[in-house]
Specification:
It contains 24 helices and five strands. It is mainly alpha-helical and 477 residues long. The chain folds into two domains: 2-369, no CATH class; 375-467.
Length: 477
């Protein structure tokens, strides 16, 4: 009995399934947790618009483009479209994206284990996957964001791609590599950096020229559509429909300078956001170990992945330094080296205690993400309150600045602006001429209270609603 219990505890599938279940807690809550609610609601906007406006996957649209259609360039909306498909079957709910991401990310963790098991000890594979569970992936795998979602497809693509090199006769592995890598790159371009690991296989001498050629040609073909989407279609949508919102990178040199200016915040993403302090300590030990032991494979992994990811960092610049989820693609590499460092400890009991400490640190530092604070939760009522006075097609303006979150929960289209803009009479007259009918002034979250000279038709502790349509000036009554 005791032996069976220990066998279960040492099976990584147990931990993947267990913490899949743990993260189901609050899974049906709307995307209103403090961290990156704005990013989640943009995903939800696109998904809901596929359902309610136009299901053409080539024309994703947001609700914050004022009088415009909201069509804009973004990541290829694979994730959004899955939410749309589920909504088409079951009816729309805010939380579908959470569950979809959690399922895919948990499968991705399993593929991470399978991949590592091929080239390292089972112990390193298990421990690396355990550390990955409690890394930043712990919370972001249940957010309505494509980051861990896309990385999971990339990890699976790595597994099947390496299987092809192991057994070139099984072409199904090459096909699966093609499909999974395509989805991963399309979902989030930066996730594709990890595929540079295949350089190790291409430059190894123990594979035939034909095998390498087949793989290279397959890889070039799979890059065609992502290249079309990101470098032609995205700019085309922005130009044609006149609305830019999603960050698509900046010149490498400009981004590098921003990283240098914010060097402390940039480094913090590795040791604080990515895998937390205990695991980062063992990552450092594992890195040093790979140098002194002259482990070629680990050194190849680190040098190739770090070089490629540094380009991603430079393309992101300030955004990398100030948005923790940009470290997500590099976290699997860090987990591998942390597990390698941990393998230096021979005492199994002590090793398990360290793993427990890593898990505890990761959980404690992310458990706040399972809660929605009361002021944010009250935004749920915004649509219902607006429905008392307006139609769903009425254009509105909200004083949430750069945050699209309240517009999503208002279930309307319009503008999100600063208080200064809303107090600008010339700007407001122009917006009214474009069809603006109501202004929502947030008081407690994502905006601060200001008084307007328009008729106030609703007032609560969280927000006020003003009617501005058919008025020629802010002082009109």
């Amino acid at each position: 009995m005791k032996t069976n219990f220990l066998h279960i505890l040492t099976d990584i599938r147990f931990w993947i399934v267990l913490f899949f279940a743990v993260r189901l807690h609050g899974i049906t809550r709307p995307p209103l947790e403090f961290a990156h609610n704005w990013r989640q609601t943009t995903v939800c906007m696109v998904s809901r618009n596929f359902l309610e406006t136009d299901a053409n996957i080539f024309y994703p649209r947001l609700d914050i483009a004022g009088e415009k259609t909201g069509i804009t360039g973004m990541e290829f909306p694979v994730f959004n479209y899955l939410i749309f498909i589920v909504s088409k079957i079951f009816g729309y709910e805010h939380w579908y994206g959470r569950l979809i991401n959690l399922i895919i990310s948990s499968i991705g963790m399993w593929y991470f284990y399978l991949l590592l098991k091929k080239y390292f000890t089972i112990e390193i594979a298990k421990n690396a996957t355990f550390i990955l569970i409690f890394s930043i992936w712990f919370s972001y795998s249940r957010k309505i964001m494509p980051d861990t979602f896309s990385m999971s497809f990339i990890l699976a693509a790595l597994y099947y791609g390496t299987n092809y090199f192991d057994n070139p006769a099984k072409k199904i592995n090459l096909i699966l590599y093609f499909l999974l890598a395509s989805i991963g790159i399309l979902s989030k371009l930066t996730s594709g950096y990890l595929l540079v690991l295949f350089l190790v296989f291409i430059f190894k001498d123990n594979h035939s020229f034909q095998v390498k050629l087949n793989f290279i040609l397959t890889s070039l073909i799979l890059l065609v559509f992502p290249a079309f989407w990101y470098f032609y279609w995205v700019p085309n949508l922005v130009t044609e429909y006149g609305f830019w919102h999603f960050f698509m990178g900046k010149p490498i040199l400009a981004g590098f300078k921003e990283l240098i200016i914010d060097w402390s915040e940039s480094l913090k993403k590795f040791y604080s956001s990515g895998i937390k302090y205990i695991a980062f300590g063992f990552f450092t030990i594992g890195l040093i170990k790979s140098i002194f032991e002259k482990n070629k494979l680990l050194r190849y992994v680190f040098s190739i992945c770090t070089s490629a990811f540094f380009i991603v960092m430079c393309k992101s610049g300030w955004t990398f330094a100030h948005h923790e989820y940009y470290i997500i693609p590099f976290v699997p590499v860090m987990c591998l080296f942390a597990a390698s460092g941990l393998s230096l400890i021979n005492n199994s009991s002590f090793k398990y205690l360290i793993l427990i400490a890593i898990g505890f640190e990761g959980f404690v530092n992310q458990k706040h993400d399972f809660r929605i604070k009361e002021p944010f939760a009250n935004l749920i009522s915004l649509e219902k309150d607006l429905d008392q006075f307006s139609n769903g097609t009425d254009l509105i303006m909200i004083n949430s600045g750069l945050f699209p979150t309240p517009m999503y929960f208002a279930h309307r289209k319009g503008w999100v602006e600063s208080n200064e803009k809303i107090m600008d009479e010339v700007y407001m007259k122009a917006a009214i001429n474009l069809g603006l009918k109501y202004v929502v002034i947030l008081k407690r979250v994502l905006g601060t209270e200001i008084k307007l000279d328009y008729p106030c038709i609703f007032n609560s502790q969280d927000y006020a609603i003003y009617k501005v349509s058919d008025l020629n000036s802010p002082n009109s009554k």
